[in-house]
């Protein structure tokens, strides 16, 4: 699932570091406006020359702005479905941490592919006071249909957070559900934790030697059928 996640990250929401302790940001209040603001910030980094300095700046942006607006625990719960209840609190914490690492590392690397791409947001269709909304956007690409990027978001005590992303109509979270369930059936919850740890180590090694990123659709398609 590597890069497709990244498409999601390219437009993520403006937020302050420290997800657990952050206060609701007073502006911008609307989730679509928040995403638009972060998009501008991300694109400003991507417009710089390809260099180690840009990569470092992008990594800091991911950690300080993007990570805090993902609800990784809820994403992990959705990906595990009923298997989440089989895990102890300690196992749940480990699963969420490993899943977060997997997602963050994947889209951090993939973000670099979106230099020069234009992203547009659709008008938000939500009644006043709604605590769950869908924010729709599209990435324009020359010669092909726009790539749709849809965010499911919930408003809570720490502000708006993303709990699922659909790229070209396919759920990022649900794409992992089948492989997670198969791993739990075969090896239990601890087996899934180990599989995620192993995958994250492999990604670290691959990132160290990778010279080129694979196109979004190829990676995303492979992720839908792969083990964690």
Q: Strands across the major sheet, in which order? A: 1-2-3-4-5
Structural class: alpha+beta
Q: Tell me, what is the CATH class? A: Alpha Beta
Mean pLDDT: 78
**Total number of helical segments?**
7
CATH architecture: Roll
Shape: globular
Rg from Cα: 17 Å
How many strands, which pairing sense, and closed or not: the largest β-sheet? 5 strands, antiparallel
Counting structural domains, the number is: 1
Question: What sequence of helices (H) and strands (E) makes up the elements?
Answer: HHHHHEEEEEHH
Q: How many β-strand stretches?
A: 5
Residue runs with pLDDT of under 50 for 5 or more positions: 9-28, 210-226
Short description:
By secondary structure, this protein is of the alpha+beta class. The chain has helices at residues 4-9, 31-46, 52-66, 72-80, 89-110, 177-209, 216-225; strands at residues 118-121, 132-141, 144-156, 159-167, 170-171.
Compile the SSE list and pairings:
Elements: H1 4-9, H2 31-46, H3 52-66, H4 72-80, H5 89-110, E1 118-121, E2 132-141, E3 144-156, E4 159-167, E5 170-171, H6 177-209, H7 216-225
Antiparallel strand pairs: 1-2, 2-3, 3-4, 4-5
Helix pairs in contact: 2-3, 4-5, 5-6
